[in-house]
Write a structure and sequence with these properties.
Elements lengths: L8 H4 L12 E3 L1 H4 L6 H19 E3 L3 H14 L9 H4 L4 H11 L3 E7 L5 E7 L8 H4 L4 H4 L6 H15 L5 E10 L25 E11 L6 E11 H5 L2 H13 L2 H6 L6 H9 L1
Bound molecules: protoporphyrin IX containing FE (HEM).
Protoporphyrin IX containing FE binds next to strand 3, helix 8, helix 9 and strand 5.
Length: 280
């Protein structure tokens, strides 16, 4: 079974105050991109969004096309493509179609970055069916700092460390971290245009879901680019409420999170209510 299928709740919600952190763990790319136990359901949902909103899910610049070619070769090496995939014929498709091809076959969303002449990494392509409230097209060509601009305090505290980290990672290793969020909807696709229900002070425990974003950074050896993989899973908040250590950890994070971060994470009208529900 893929480790993604086994969530360690106390590691996601540790007993510590909320803070923005870099904490990466070393992993194997082939393991990160391996199909999960939910592969059939997740791939069917990706197909649905690609058929209905392909222009929101895929994007690639001219500079992104060679990065994608390298990604496909690595994916084949990791045995992370369906058996019988004919890479040579995929590479004859227009670049945007190539992105769509992979997006439909991978459970994981992917972003491709490349350093410019100034050394800063910019976003050059991606396949994103399950965004957590952000829009792929509006971030294309932007640096990581520009992309992170809406995240309160992130550039000020971690911006330089993030750029430094991206510049020094070497091929062959999957550098992994995670983000969590809370939502009033179990939908995997939380594109801003969908206007999904928001958390507020009337929400009930069974209406709240926590989202886990498992992320992986892998250096692309030939181009000097980076593959950023994001695998989203959604779980009932009740699971955390029933896990005493994780529940205390989440309460501590909620209690110590700066107000602007609470608002960014969509909990501006719900922080007190969620804490009460976790204590009941
Ligand atoms: C390398 C270290 C990185 C760290 C520590 C980091 C950290 C974060 C954090 C804390 C958030 C806020 C998430 C939340 O609480 O909901 C965020 C958002 C985001 N990050 Fe990163 N990130 C990193 C790299 C990247 C890279 C390489 C990309 C590639 C494009 C990226 C793209 C994004 C995007 C698109 C968002 C959402 C921004 C929005 O709301 O508009 N991050 N990141």
């Amino acid at each position: 079974m893929n480790p993604i299928d086994v969530v360690d709740l106390s590691a996601i919600f540790p007993a510590e105050d909320f803070r923005l952190k870099m904490r990466f763990e070393r992993g194997e790319p082939a393991q990160f991109y391996k199909p999960s136990a939910q592969a059939n359901r997740v791939l069917a949902e990706r197909k649905h969004w690609l058929e209905n909103t392909a222009e929101a899910c895929t994007a690639i610049t001219d500079e992104g096309a060679p990065l994608f070619e390298e990604l496909l070769e690595l994916a084949a090496k990791w045995k992370a493509l369906p058996s019988g995939s004919d890479i040579a014929s995929v590479l004859r498709l227009p670049p945007l179609e190539q992105c769509r091809w992979l997006c439909e076959r991978w459970e994981t969303d992917f972003l491709l970055l490349k350093p410019g002449a100034d050394g800063l990494f910019r976003l050059h392509g991606g396949g994103l069916c399950f965004p957590s409230h952000w829009d792929l097209r509006s971030k294309m060509g932007h640096t990581v700092a520009e992309i992170h601009e809406p995240v309160p305090g992130l550039n000020a505290t971690l911006g330089r460390s993030i750029d430094g980290f991206l510049a020094k990672i070497r091929p062959g290793i999957s550098w992994e971290r995670h983000n969590w969020g809370l939502s009033r909807s179990p939908e995997l696709n939380q594109h801003p245009s969908r206007k999904l229900p928001r958390l507020d002070d009337k929400v009930t425990l069974d209406e709240i879901w926590w989202r886990l974003e498992d992320q992986s950074l892998v250096a692309l050896p030939r181009s000097g680019g980076i593959l950023f993989g994001i695998r989203v899973t959604v779980h009932p908040l009740r699971e955390v409420r029933n896990h005493s250590t994780a529940c205390e950890g989440l309460l501590q994070a909620l209690g110590t999170m700066p107000e602007e971060m609470v608002i960014y994470k969509g909990m501006g009208r719900a922080r007190k209510r969620i804490s009460e529900l976790l204590r009941e």
